[in-house]
């Protein structure tokens, strides 16, 4: 193995460049390009070719753990870190010539960024932080900060988007359901029932969903060792 494939890690040791040297905290798939992104507590994100599981690139992204990574269809990659920042990277080239270039820092705060999510077309990006706040950015030609969403008493730990809805899971044991109209986000419902922090949330379109109003099945996982299933509609009455 070539020496360039080794990097310095804690304790004056070296580790293979193709392997993370600390816990892997997040994954994101870009199906169009056949790429898998992995983020780690070792402060890097790595790019893998899914067809052969080869590591194409390793990027030193932050000064603290990478907690979340999101890849969008237009070649942008977003990373959120325990240091409190959200960074944007642009994929350039393909194959062996592919590199991810730093573009900008969207957020730089004291509290950790725990979660990121983007709309399907990448036009809106959300971040959830340990202060219980969700920040979001909208893009025309460039990404610009468009506001904050406040509804949780404790840290936001996970995010999901579906249609015009945004879902935020929190250490306060709840899931907030937000409806987006333009840049305005209104809380439609607060899903309660977990007895521990909500660590992950996933959404799929319900079989009976209609064009007039989306219906969704929401899955939530918690430190209370349970997975709960919820039925949510965009036509729900606001709380």
TrEMBL record:
Provide a GO biological process annotation.
pollen germination
Q: Give the CC-aspect GO terms.
A: cytoplasm; nucleus
User: Under which EC number(s) is this enzyme classified?
Assistant: 2.7.11.7
> Domain IP5PC-F beta-propeller: where?
22-98
What PROSITE patterns would the database entry show? WD_REPEATS_2, WD_REPEATS_REGION
Known InterPro entries for this protein? Beta-prop_IP5PC_F (IPR056454), JINGUBANG-like (IPR045182), WD40/YVTN_repeat-like_dom_sf (IPR015943), WD40_PAC1 (IPR020472), WD40_repeat_dom_sf (IPR036322), WD40_rpt (IPR001680)
Name under which the protein is recorded:
Putative apoptotic protease-activating factor 1
Organism source for this protein? Helianthus annuus (Common sunflower)
């Amino acid at each position: 193995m070539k020496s360039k494939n080794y990097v310095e890690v804690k304790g004056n040791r070296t580790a293979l460049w193709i392997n993370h040297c600390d816990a892997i905290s997040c994954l994101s798939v870009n199906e169009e390009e056949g790429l898998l992104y992995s983020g780690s507590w070792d402060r890097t994100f790595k790019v893998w070719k899914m067809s052969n599981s080869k590591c194409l690139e390793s990027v030193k992204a932050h000064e603290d753990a990478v907690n979340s990574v999101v890849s969008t269809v237009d070649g942008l990659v977003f990373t959120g870190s325990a240091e409190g920042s959200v960074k944007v990277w642009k994929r350039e080239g393909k194959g062996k010539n592919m590199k991810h270039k730093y573009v900008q820092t969207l957020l730089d705060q004291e509290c950790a960024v725990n979660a990121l999510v983007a709309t399907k077309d990448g036009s809106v990006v959300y971040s959830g932080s340990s202060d219980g706040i969700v920040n979001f950015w909208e893009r025309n030609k460039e990404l610009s900060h468009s506001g904050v969403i406040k509804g949780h008493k404790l840290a936001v730990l996970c995010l999901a988007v579906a249609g015009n809805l945004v879902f935020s899971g929190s250490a306060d044991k709840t899931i907030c359901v937000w409806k987006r109209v333009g840049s305005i986000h209104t809380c439609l419902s607060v899903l309660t029932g977990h007895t521990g922090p909500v660590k992950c949330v996933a959404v799929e379109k319900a079989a009976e969903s209609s064009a007039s109003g989306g219906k969704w099945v929401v899955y939530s996982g918690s430190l209370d060792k349970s997975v709960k299933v919820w039925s949510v509609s965009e036509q729900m009455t606001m709380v």
